[in-house]
């Protein structure tokens, strides 16, 4: 079961309430809850891949979500290694630094 998301309201609720609602209720509420179509584990792999290729700050938050959704350290390492050849070495290095922090309890 997908955890209820409140990041939109917590961070932007008073500034951009419609965006916050769409983030929490539609993206994380409706789309992420479609587990019959795609598991949270797989959605996390896809999301982290997309964010890694873009080099955006949300990567860290979604790596944490990925870990909570059962993505293992080994899977994350393989994902980053694979994408290094498609998205660029510097982005992979940055992603590995984030992953090392998030998975630090596993090595």
From TrEMBL:
Transmembrane segments: none annotated. It comes from the Bacteria. Residues 17-101 form the Carboxymuconolactone decarboxylase-like domain. GO terms for molecular function: peroxiredoxin activity. InterPro entries: 4CMD/NDH-1_regulator, AhpD-like, CMD-like. This is Carboxymuconolactone decarboxylase family protein.
